[in-house]
Amino acid sequence: MGDTAATALQWLALVEHELLLFAGFFFLIGAIDEFSMDLAWFWLRLTGQVETPTLSRHNIHHRRLSGRAAVLVPTWQEASVIGDTLRHALSVWPQEDLRIYVGVYRNDPATMEAAVHGADGDGRVRIVVHDREGPSTKADCLNRLYAALQQDEMREGRDVRMVILHDAEDMVDAAALALLDRSMGTSHFVQLPVLPMPQPRSRFIGSHYCEEFAEAHGKAMVVRNALGASLPAAGVGCAFERRMLAEIARKVGHDAPFDEDSLTEDYELGIKVAALGGRSRFLRVRGEDGHLIATRAYFPSQLGRAVRQKARWMHGIALQGWDRLGWTGGPGEWWMRSRDRRGPLSALVLFVGYFLIVLGLVLSGLDLAGLTVPWQPSPLLLALLALNVASFVWRAFMRFTFTREEYGWREGLWAVARIPVANVISIMAGYRALFAYTRTLRGEAAEWEKTAHDAHPARPLSLEISR
């Protein structure tokens, strides 16, 4: 073997060693962060500080509301889902004080027609046609709906009590409206869990959201709520007290509560409630059938759509959020915001980890051919790798546990099998988010990429509540 080849192989071995140290260190930091969250959750459970009460959907979903509830549903090219969504919501929410505001664009007649058919003449639905060509942004469409709500309040002389946000593809729970109404008496912002639906035709892409939300809304949000840190709004299944929303609008300016410069206006809205001294609450309640009272939906089942959606989340929460919201609050708040903003770094570390797998295979092949310069890992590196392997096994166990609780043991096993796919999607989303953010640093406007939705594959059986 020539000197040049030997030098090149030595450099490859050195690169492998240094990248192992880099990835091992940051993987360990992430593992410590997650394990700390696990310990906090276990402590809260053992001390009885958190619980998941049970109530009967049949007894609560007919409950009369304490005041008018307005549901805002922004749409753009949602003809395939908005009709089913409206029909389902109107059938399981019979309350007369419900008003559903559906925002459509004048250059999207298909969605407008589907919404009209979905409403089927029910006077509780108001279809609001935007006065500009679509698509604009989700925040802009929400502000148009908010203006329509204000007009109705002035015309009817009656204020709305709470404002609920939902997306065009959401399948709402029969008990959710009455539960939010009951909780609004002691809170300014309430978030219900979100449960993505498993997709047998998209086991690895569309279904990988199941375990992520099961763990985030089964553990992380529970701990966050117990710590008194600000709660981010998921943009669906969340309710805001009307006066708090008006106060946010006054602070933002132009009498519009949703910031059109943000890619994740819903996330920021929850943070702003806490900044104004409002009371926030994450509410986990189960029905008599054992299922969570939650918003259920089918998430993107195609790789490109999943990457675009997660890139928007990462860009808006991790990168824009750092610029726009800063690091206010105490240690608990800093911890939660650091978790919110670790996405791009996690994507980079994951990329390095997968690159190391490829590099290790290449060097092993060369070693078998007698072409490599052997190197011995240091005791520190071996200890680092052992800790990371142990933490991965623990994380896989926790992911299985939380997924099994909501979806059963089969989906729990699928959740473990999907870990590499979820990691690859995060890497691709991190790359896309980072480059989108750098364009904004050069003065370009942030680009809003709406998630496209396919028709509902089938209505979840757990939603068929007898009325």
Short description:
The chain has 467 residues and is of the alpha/beta class. The protein folds into 2 domains: 3-41 and 341-441, no CATH class; 54-192 and 237-299, Spore Coat Polysaccharide Biosynthesis Protein SpsA, Chain A (Alpha-Beta Complex).
Explain the overall architecture:
With 467 residues, the protein is of the alpha/beta class. It has two domains: 3-41 and 341-441, no CATH class; 54-192 and 237-299, Alpha-Beta Complex (Spore Coat Polysaccharide Biosynthesis Protein SpsA, Chain A), CATH 3.90.550.10. Helix content is 55%, strand content 10%. It is built from 15 helices and eleven strands. It has helices spanning 3-46, 57-60, 82-92, 109-119, 138-156, 176-183, 208-227, 242-252, 265-275, 303-325, 331-340, 343-368, 379-407, 409-417, 419-441; strands spanning 54-55, 68-74, 98-105, 125-130, 160-165, 189-191, 194-196, 238-241, 280-282, 286-287, 295-297. Strands 4-3-2-5-8-6-9 form a seven-stranded mixed sheet, sandwiched between helices. It has a two-stranded parallel ribbon with strand order 1-10.
Please specify the SSE layout and strand pairing.
Blueprint: H1 3-46, E1 54-55, H2 57-60, E2 68-74, H3 82-92, E3 98-105, H4 109-119, E4 125-130, H5 138-156, E5 160-165, H6 176-183, E6 189-191, E7 194-196, H7 208-227, E8 238-241, H8 242-252, H9 265-275, E9 280-282, E10 286-287, E11 295-297, H10 303-325, H11 331-340, H12 343-368, H13 379-407, H14 409-417, H15 419-441
Parallel strand pairs: 1-10, 2-3, 2-5, 3-4, 6-9, 7-11
Antiparallel strand pairs: 5-8, 6-8
Helix pairs in contact: 1-7, 1-12, 1-13, 3-4, 7-13, 9-10, 10-15, 12-15, 13-14
